[in-house]
Design goal:
Distance between the termini: 40 Å
Number of strands: 14
Strand content: 5-15%
CATH topology of the largest domain: Rossmann fold
Mean pLDDT: 94
Structural class: alpha/beta
Helix content: 40-55%
CATH superfamily of the largest domain: NAD(P)-binding Rossmann-like Domain
């Protein structure tokens, strides 16, 4: 990677991925792509170049790639799970029509492409415990359908045109920097904010709902280290299971209470979020990622909780 374009740079993952890539590869070599109305601000704006790029406008992608001599594209444009269910047509348009545009530009300009998939690509018929790398994928949400299609279309462009496409299936991602935007696993971010603010947290999922999760530093490392991996060692490409921890709402609640004993949580289950969560894995087998490109997460629930609380107390002046 020499010149990198991040499409969707102002989102939860994108805003932090841009900064991490700039630290590793130099500020001028990482271009933050954004859509009108979601321009970079603060450190993201000041730390390096940015350009308006809409995945639904192939010319804007091509102009950015050609103008900045891009060789690597991180395509992070997507609607998250809950939002996608409220607007499935737009979710397909952004997720798949947008991906098609990115892949076509990558084919013509010889770019590598990373487009994340998700635990949402699995469904109720998938084995839920230690979900295998290669298994049945029959999601019943538009979010999941777009993610399965993302995997297949990315593989197609690799086998037919030789485009260097790579991807991971992200679990829920927990960050202390940018708030998530409409995902089923958002509760695992919101709960920390409530705890630090001294508020009672209202949990939208049942107490025993297991879901795979990952702290943002590990997610960033996964996205970067996969693209740095030797392609001759990759038996899989789109997409690798990756995970760091699996826990229930009750487990994260108890982890926080070790540090904030007065913290309280109640349950008001959201039927849509619960149905989506129930269709996703309890835990994933990421042994292929560990074997093929040495994937190893650094954070577990306890170490993440310590860091989250410390960072949020500083951020919120609590």
């Amino acid at each position: 990677m020499k010149k990198i374009l991040i499409i969707g740079s102002t989102g939860q993952i994108g805003s932090e991925l841009v900064m991490e890539l700039r630290r590793r590869f130099g500020s001028t070599n990482v271009i933050a792509g954004y859509i009108a109305g979601k321009e970079p601000t603060g450190e993201l704006e000041k730390s390096g170049p940015s350009v308006e790029v809409d995945v639904l406008n192939r010319n804007s992608i091509e102009k950015a790639v050609e103008g900045y001599q891009i060789d690597t594209i991180y395509n992070l444009a997507a609607l998250l799970s809950v939002v996608a269910e409220s607007n499935p047509a737009l979710a397909w348009k952004v997720g798949i029509d947008g991906l098609w545009n990115v892949l076509e530009v990558a084919r013509n300009y010889n770019c590598a492409v990373f487009t994340p998939s998700s635990i949402g690509s699995f469904g109720v018929d998938t084995p839920h415990d230690m979900t295998p790398q290669d298994t049945i994928q029959r999601p019943r949400t538009m979010y999941g359908i777009t993610k399965v299609t993302t995997e297949l279309l990315s593989d197609y462009y690799h086998t037919k045109y030789g485009v260097d496409t790579r991807s991971v299936r992200f679990p829920g991602i927990i960050s202390n920097v940018t708030l998530p935007g409409g995902g089923t696993t958002d509760y695992a971010v919101d709960i920390y904010y409530a705890a630090v603010k001294g508020e009672t947290f209202v949990c939208p999922l049942k107490s025993d709902t297991f879901l795979d999760m990952m702290y943002m530093p590990d997610a960033l490392n996964a996205a970067i280290s996969l693209l740095e991996a030797d392609p001759s060692l990759l038996k899989h490409r789109n997409s690798f299971n990756v995970t760091a921890m699996s826990f229930t709402p009750e487990m994260i609640y108890k982890a926080i209470k070790k540090h904030i004993p007065d913290f309280e949580m109640i349950y008001e289950v959201d039927p849509l979020k619960q149905a989506i969560a129930d269709s996703w894995p309890n835990s994933m087998d990421d042994s292929c990622a560990r074997k093929e490109w040495n994937w190893i997460p650094k954070y577990d629930l306890d170490s993440m909780t310590v860091d989250m609380l410390e960072k949020l107390r500083a951020k919120l002046n609590k």
